[in-house]
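Recall that a protein's primary structure is simply its ordered list of amino acids. Everything else, from secondary elements to tertiary packing, is in principle encoded there. The following example makes that idea concrete.
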Amino acid sequence: MLKIGVLGAGHLGKIHLRLLNQSEKYNLVGFYDPIESNAIKVAEEFGYHRFTSIEALIAAVDVVDIVTPTLNHYECAVQAITAGKHIFIEKPIATTIEQAQNIIALAKQHQVKGQVGHVERFNPAFKAVREKINNPMFIETHRLAEFNPRGTDVPVVLDLMIHDIDAILSVVDSEVKSIHASGTAVISDSPDICNARIEFENGCVANVTSSRISMKNMRKARFFQKDAYISVDYLDKICEVVKMKDAPEVPGDFDLILQNAEGVKKQIYYDNPTVEPNNAILDELETFADAINNNTQPVVTLEQGTKALEIAYRIIESYSK
């Protein structure tokens, strides 16, 4: 089993600690949190071993799980990688693109693996339809959240929208051609609401909306492609696939048939896959263990995490003009 330690014991860090403690692929060695009062409380309440320095934790493990505030990602990653440790790093990969690129370079230099915590890739609803999303030409996403002070140290693009950016980039095999965005700060110093139109070289368009001051929570995506419409509800973990095929010469009584202006008839039918329940965070952590043990590529690479960050900053640059 791989020995792993967690840097950061905040809200998400405690979730990682609990899941890693249950995992059959990791041996949770302990954690480090610079806020001593919080670290003592977590150690006493849950029984996890508390390290008193980052250096001590890194020296004791094979894998470092970085669940610190984004501003600390780079420093923690550099320390872990230069010590020859594999890193799992929460999204976004770093504060700046230059930092992310340095993390990639260091990981290659020290021959360690890294994975970025874009957890929606492991959402069971998205996993259920991932292979059915084939060359989408229009994508629409809405990620709305009730206000929570946690996370407002960064724009909503880096806090929420980056989840959808990564998911979109994982299904669109094309470079981004142009971005047009608008953002508004309502309660924070940085924008709390953002809408972006991302145009790809192959003609695909993604309309992406995120808000962290909504009256209700919503995490939905819709993918439109030739002869198919696919919807994913990340929050409720349900999906829907509506497809079209040539209509039979003699339709059944309950067949839904559409006819266009040219007289072409299509039959509408549902092809909904089974959504297999899972814990997405545990899945992403354990697939990283598999990548290390089998020397394969992680599901969400450092390069992919950096690409999502690059697009996020292009969106921020667009609405900041």
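The radius of gyration is 22 Å. The mean pLDDT is 93.
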